[in-house]
């Protein structure tokens, strides 16, 4: 495959190119590293099949020529090349650990297209897998103050849940027709009075304890 | 990183408190972060500390797993009336209009005890960090809470200054002050991925904190107006969770848990008795039958 250096003025972007690219980023790459891969042009029409945004970036930079490889294809094949070239790049994914390692080994992220935010996101993605699930036995480090310096000790999540588990109540809702509601509420009020109780929760519990002759659990 | 040796960054006030108040309720515009380095930021003139910002260097994976697992609800913030996807944790004060008759733990403690326990464990870690980078401020805040009569039982942990918290899911909050809080600094760790923006802006100092993943911001949210810049997801599953720890003023009216529970039951019974009178036509009332 021959590579030709071609004046930008004779080339045409592909009409109706569906791909949207980041021309500024490509321009930064061209300005920093030069053009390290040619664009693809249909010889019969001078239309660009791959590298439309590279062409735009080169124009933006004021280049006169660009490296091109030519193909000779009909209109249908040209359209198919445009489609598959974009689709194949869509299917590319990353090995995030390798990508992170590549970026972290660089002295700077300048002119890589990546920023600190992207590295943070890669680290976050890997961190998501570091704790796949939580249970009350999940251990964690805690700092214990004392003596000359603080020390670390391992505790379980359960120890932090305890303070809250002791403070949990649930409401029991009951639903009656109005006339039954009045009867039930008045009977409960009477029962409270008889047993010197302050609320319906205690009244119902006492009633059940008396009915079944057993005490409600204390914990 | 030794928190006791955090670098000091001096920043100039660019707006008065009153001018900042006029921004309350307005959405923050897109801004570039200019608070990106770890350190304590102080007023250049008065030397009053404004905020501290640094990486957690703690078990961020646990915090991340917790907030990723939590089931969120869309709620309207009382202070701004703006909808927000969030979940509260820690302790909640009485709120009779919401049928919460007693001070009690938030529902998350019951619904997702493991996730809740992580948030509480981190309250302890943040309290330790606060003590380390600003022991005087910590002591002052602890003194304020004791003076206000906040029962120790309603703190997240014995050492934590905070009673309560909220996890905000990718929420672009307009400028606001945390008006319902005690005069204590809040802690706000952030976990995020593939989300651009979502920085915290303090207009009085034109300070825009990057809120990086795994970093924590400490600041007096009751004092300085602050708001979140717009966010743009860069991936389908992008997220930004801010976890805000604060001390709710409403908690100072809470009795001990045992008393709260008993009072709640008595109040509920009184409402049930009232409903009888209403149903029998003996009482005109706005009291609804339960």
Ends of chain A: how far apart? 82 Å
Number of strands of chain B: 15
How many helical elements of chain A? 8
* Residue runs with pLDDT of under 50 for 5 or more positions of chain B: none
Overall shape of chain A: elongated
Descriptors:
heterodimer, A: 219 residues, alpha+beta, 45% helix, B: 290 residues, 3-stranded antiparallel beta sheet, 6 helices, 15 strands, globular
Question: Could you explain how this protein is built, in words?
Answer:
The complex is a heterodimer of chains A (219) and B (290). With 219 residues, chain A is of the alpha+beta class. Chain A is 45% helix and 15% strand. In chain A, the strands form 2 sheets. Chain A has a 4-stranded mixed beta sheet with strand order 1-4-2-3. Chain B is an alpha+beta fold. In chain B, strands 1, 2, 3, 4, 5, 6, 7, 8, 12 and 15 form a 10-stranded mixed beta sheet that branches. A 3-stranded antiparallel beta sheet of chain B has the order 11-10-13, with no helix packed on it. In chain B, strand 10 (200-202) and strand 11 (207-209) form a beta hairpin. In chain B, helix 2 crosses helix 4 (113-133) and helix 4 crosses helix 5. The longest helix of chain B has 23 residues, at 257-279. Chain B is globular and about 70 Å long. The N and C termini of chain B lie far apart (56 Å). In chain B, 45% of the residues are buried.
Give a brief outline of the structure.
Chain A is α+β, with helices and mostly antiparallel strands and 219 residues long. In chain A, 45% of the residues lie in helices and 15% in strands.
Itemize the secondary structure elements and their pairings.
The complex is a heterodimer of chains A (219) and B (290).
Chain A: E1 3-7, H1 23-33, E2 39-42, E3 47-50, H2 52-60, E4 65-71, H3 75-90, H4 96-104, H5 116-128, E5 139-144, E6 151-156, H6 157-165, H7 178-195, H8 200-212
Parallel strand pairs in A: 2-4
Antiparallel strand pairs in A: 1-4, 2-3, 5-6
Helix pairs in contact in A: 1-2, 4-5, 7-8
Chain B: E1 8-11, H1 17-21, E2 39-43, E3 49-55, H2 60-69, E4 73-76, E5 83-92, E6 104-105, H3 107-111, H4 113-133, H5 135-148, E7 164-169, E8 186-193, E9 195-197, E10 200-202, E11 207-209, E12 215-219, E13 227-228, E14 231-233, E15 239-246, H6 257-279
Helix pairs in contact in B: 2-4, 4-5
């Amino acid at each position: 495959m021959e590579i030709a250096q071609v004046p930008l003025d004779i080339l045409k972007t592909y009409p109706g190119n569906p791909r949207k690219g980041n021309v500024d980023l490509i321009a930064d790459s061209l300005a920093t590293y030069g053009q390290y891969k040619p664009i693809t042009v249909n010889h019969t029409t001078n239309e660009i099949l791959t590298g439309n945004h590279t062409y735009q970036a080169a124009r933006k930079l004021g280049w006169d020529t660009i490296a091109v490889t030519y193909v000779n294809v009909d209109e249908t094949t040209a359209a198919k090349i445009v489609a598959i070239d974009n689709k194949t790049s869509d299917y590319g994914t990353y090995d995030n650990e390798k990508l992170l390692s590549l970026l972290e080994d660089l002295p700077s992220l300048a002119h890589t297209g990546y920023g600190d935010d992207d590295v943070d996101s890669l680290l976050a993605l890997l961190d998501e897998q570091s704790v796949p699930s939580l249970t009350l036995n999940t251990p964690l480090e805690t700092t214990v103050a004392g003596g000359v310096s603080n020390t670390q000790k391992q505790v379980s999540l359960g120890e932090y849940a305890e303070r809250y588990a002791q403070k949990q109540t649930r409401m029991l809702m009951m639903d009656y027709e109005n006339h039954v509601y009045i009867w039930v509420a008045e009977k409960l009020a009477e029962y409270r009075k008889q047993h010197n109780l302050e609320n319906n929760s205690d009244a119902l519990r006492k009633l059940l304890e008396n009915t079944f002759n057993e005490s409600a659990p204390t914990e | 990183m030794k928190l006791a040796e955090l670098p000091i960054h001096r920043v100039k006030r660019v707006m008065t408190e009153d001018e900042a108040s006029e921004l309350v309720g307005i959405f923050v515009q897109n801004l570039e972060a200019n608070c990106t380095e770890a350190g304590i930021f102080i007023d250049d003139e008065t030397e009053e500390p404004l905020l501290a910002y640094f990486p957690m260097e703690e078990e961020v994976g646990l915090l991340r797993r917790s907030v990723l697992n939590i089931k969120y609800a869309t709620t309207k913030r009382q202070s701004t009336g703006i909808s927000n996807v969030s979940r509260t944790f820690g302790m909640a004060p009485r709120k009779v209009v919401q049928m919460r008759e007693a001070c009690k733990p938030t529902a998350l403690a019951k619904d997702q005890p493991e996730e809740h326990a992580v948030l509480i464990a981190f309250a302890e870690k943040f309290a330790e960090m606060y003590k380390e980078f600003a022991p005087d401020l910590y002591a002052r805040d602890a003194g304020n809470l004791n003076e206000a009569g906040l029962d120790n039982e309603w703190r997240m942990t014995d050492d934590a200054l905070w009673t309560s918290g909220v996890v905000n899911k990718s929420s672009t909050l307009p400028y606001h002050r945390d008006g319902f809080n005690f005069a204590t600094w809040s802690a706000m760790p952030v976990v995020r991925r593939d989300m651009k923006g979502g920085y915290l802006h303090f207009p009085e100092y034109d300070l825009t904190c990057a809120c990086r993943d795994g970093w924590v911001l400490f600041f007096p949210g009751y004092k300085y107006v602050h708001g979140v810049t717009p966010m743009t997801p860069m991936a389908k599953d992008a997220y930004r969770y801010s976890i805000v720890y604060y001390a709710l003023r409403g908690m100072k009216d809470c009795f001990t848990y045992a008393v709260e529970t008993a009072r709640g039951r008595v109040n509920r019974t009184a409402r049930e008795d009232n409903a009888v009178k209403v149903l029998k036509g003996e009482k005109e009332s706005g009291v609804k039958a339960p």
